[in-house]
Amino acid sequence: MARPARSASLRARPRVLATPSAPVGGRAKRALDIGLVLLSLLLLWPLILGLVVLLKVMDPGPVLYGHHRVGFGGREFRCWKFRTMVVDGDTVLERHLRENPADAALWKEKRKLVNDPRVTPLGAVLRKLSLDELPQLLNVLKGEMSLVGPRPVVQAELDHYGTSARHYLATRPGLTGQWQISGRSDTTYAERVRLDRFYVTNWSLWRDLRIIFLTIPAVALSRGAH
User: Where is the Bacterial sugar transferase domain (predicted)?
Assistant: First the structure.
C-alpha cells in the first residue's frame, strides 16, 4: 500500500509524557520480549520467508507496509505489517466511505470495517490468521513495541482515549494484548480503551504470559478478526 499522506493530527507535535521514565514492566518485560521474539524468529523463519514469496507472486508491489503509530511517551514509530491492501488504498477507502454512509459511521466509531474494500484476497486470509502482523516482531526487537500491550494507534485515535491516554502512553504498544483475547473487532472502541487501561493498571509478568498463551487459540479460531 502506498505511503499515506500524513494527517494534520500526525503532523502536530506528539503528546509526550514527562513520566514515567520507563515503560510499564521495566527490564523484566523487556527481557521476556527479547527472549520470546528470538525464539519465535528461530521457529517461524520458514513461514515468514514463504509469506514473502507468496506476496510477491500473488500481488506484485511492496511486501511490507509501515504506518506511523504512537508509542511509549508519545514517541512516533513506524509499525510494520505485511501489506494486505491494494496499493491505492487511501483513495479506495475515501471513495467507499463517501458512497456508503453506514460504513463511514462505523469507521468513525471503530476505525475498522467488516468488509474493507482495500483488502486483497490474500490480505484477507493473512488478517484472519493475524499473519500480517508478524513483521512487528522487528518492532519488538527494536524496543518500539512489546509482545503484550495496547494495540498501536495513530494520534487521531489517541484523542478518543480522553484521560485514559496517559495509560496508553505509559507502556509500549503490543503485538497482542487484552483486546485481542477479549473479542477484538467484536468489541466497541470504548471497551478497547477500558481493556487497555485495565492492562496497564494491573500489569504483571504472569498476566503477559497468560495473554500470550490465550492469544494462540484466539488467533487459531479467528475470534473477532475482520
Answer: 29-219
